[in-house]
Amino acid sequence: MLVVTWSTDGAGNCVVLDGQPYVYARTTAGEFVLPAACPHRGGPLHLAALRPGTTRLVCPWHERATSVTRAVRAGVPAVRCGRRVTAVFDLPDSTPFTVEYRPLSDDLVGGRA
To answer: Cys-Cys with 46: which of 1, 36, 79, 100 at CB 3.0–4.6 Å?
Structure first.
C-alpha cells in the first residue's frame, strides 16, 4: 500500500500516481479524494460543477454526471488534518508519484476554511 500526504489546496494540491491525478474535494455531500480525470474521456473532473439540487458532479467536457455519494463511499481512504490530506492507495509502496497543481471548481472547495 502506498501512503501519500499532500496539500488540500494551493500549489501542491494534486498527487499523480501512474499517470492518474487525484485531488482532495470538499462538497456539501462529503469530503473525499477524487480522481481529477473523468473516467469517461479523461476530462478535467477537478473542474466539475455540482448539478443544481443534486449530489452529482458534471464533467465540463461532455456533461456526464458522476455521483459524489458513490465517490465518497468507494473512494480512496483518506484523512484530512488542517490543510494536508493523507491517503492510502492500493499500489505498491515503491510506486513513484509527483505532486502538482490542479485548479478546483468552486463546488469542490465548498465550505473550506
So the answer is: 36
Whole-model pTM: value is: 0.89
Kindly give the residue spans of alpha helices, DSSP state H, lying in 1-113.
68-74
The neighbouring-strand residues paired with 95 are none
What nine digits make up the cell of 19?
499517470
Q: List, in order, residues 6 or more apart from 97 with CB less than 8 Å away.
A: 2, 4, 15, 16, 17
- Sorted by where each starts, the structural domains of the chain and their CATH numbers stand as 2-108 (2.102.10.10)
* φ, ψ dihedrals at 46, nearest 5°: -70, -10
Asked whether 108 and 9 are in contact (CB, 8 A), the reply is no
Cβ atoms within 10 Å, residue 39: 12
